[in-house]
Amino acid sequence: MGVDGRLRAVVSLAQAMAAAHTPRDSVRAAARGARTAMDGSFAAISAWERERGRLRVLVNEGERRAGEEEFPEDESYPVHDFPEITEFLHERWAGGGGPHAWVDSAAGGRPGRRGEALRRRGRATCVVAPLVLSGRAWGELYVARDEGLPDFDEDDAEFATVLAAVIAAGLAQNERLEEARRLAFTDPLTGLANRRAVDMALDEALERHRAGGVVVSLVVCDLNGLKRVNDTLGHATGDRLLERFGSVLSLCGAMLPGALVARLGGDEFCVVSAGPSADEVVRVAELVCARAGELELGEGVACGVASTGDDIGAVKTSRRLFRLADAAQYKAKAARAAGPVVAGRDTAVVRLADAAPTGSADRRRFRGRPT
Fold first, then answer.
1. Angle, CA 283 vertex, CA 280 and CA 285 arms, to 5°
2. Which of 61, 246, 293, 322 measures 20 to 30 Å from 107, CA to CA?
3. What pLDDT digit, counting tens, does each position of 145-185 carry?
4. Single pTM value for the model
5. Phi, psi (5° rounding) for residue 36?
């Protein structure tokens, strides 16, 4: 492949990664593009998991051998078996050099794990190029050729270094997008889901309810005493209270399979459940109230529950379920209840919710209404 061909291959690789919709699609496009650009038989991309001290294979692309899956569940290798990714690269960077690919071969029984792997799988040579993101080794690109094909040489290693830089740029962009997506549905203080995630989860859950009668429940919690903590001990302490209660809610919510635990904003939290019975959800809400009352800060929690498993009438929209849970939570707060108030089991709650305005901003309009 001449210079023009290699340039076209680089452009094609970058375009394929840019068009990928998921991280899996992105690494597959990267491996496929690199294999094609280098006339390889096989390519793989691996990530260096520092906390586990291993190289984990993300994708195997091309002519795979027995035991090589395209997206392996857990194909990984101790990083000390391939010290180049750590020791060699560190020495080069410390000396002012940049990451550079190298060639390894199965010829002559050369020692080393890569040579052994080439011989075992009927491959002749390979090029290994480090993938560097934000100045740190992230993983590696590996491209191999089968026996009978021309060996890779130093020119190929130079080209692989260029390809690795293009792939690293694509992976960095993908990671930024994934982080942005995660943050779009996550509360930054507590790490719980946010209101946007709740709205999506409730819409999906109610679709299942309409289609198959799945029980959908919503628990709304209002953390008592947050303002007092903020005013007397400072907002940093208030933030710690929010984080601590978020952890309690997460722990309790985990008892409901598939539940989503979220912070709606300020001192309001919620749990969305699809599947478990209303009784199971109420038991978890009772535990939340008990655990919140044991926190060293704050004044417990006011908790309201609304579930399609109780007698609350038809629930066609998430707005109605929110109105019911809000009304139950409001009554719990007004009565300083030690446990949850449950819509349907307290008929006054349903009347209060149904009397509330139905506009898009109807939450929190129960003040002054009789309970």
1. 110
2. 61
3. 999 999 999 999 999 999 999 999 988 877 776 666 667 78
4. 0.55
5. -65, -45
